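Exercise 7. Given the encoded structure of a 110-residue chain, write a plausible sequence.
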């Protein structure tokens, strides 16, 4: 069985990969939290600029859920322009898929 420290290290590596893959998207700020302690679950927070005509965070959550493959993220703070990603259900190599999907959706928006 995987111990807490090993799991945290694996999860941290996935979230670092995701955060790196999301860097440089115009109108998006990426932060990585929870990597300092094995007692925390590392998370990537993506904060999107809002516009009067749309809710980019909610639009992104819906597009990810409806995509192929479907990607589930934390929509709790969408009204503040924030989408949160955690590694709990990710398998090796899937952080890159999530990053590519998010980049593709955000860079395709007018």
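Solution.
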């Amino acid at each position: 069985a995987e111990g807490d420290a090993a799991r945290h290290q694996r999860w941290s590596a996935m979230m670092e990969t995701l955060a790196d893959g999301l860097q440089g998207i115009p109108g998006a700020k990426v932060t990585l939290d929870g990597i300092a302690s094995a007692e925390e679950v590392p998370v990537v927070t993506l904060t999107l600029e809002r516009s009067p005509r749309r809710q980019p965070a909610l639009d992104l959550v819906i597009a990810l859920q409806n995509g192929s493959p479907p990607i589930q993220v934390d929509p709790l703070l969408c009204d503040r322009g924030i989408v949160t990603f955690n590694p709990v259900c990710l398998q090796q190599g899937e952080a890159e898929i999530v990053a590519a999907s998010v980049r593709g959706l955000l860079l395709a928006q007018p």
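Remark. The chain has a mean pLDDT of 93. Students should compare their own answers with the one above.
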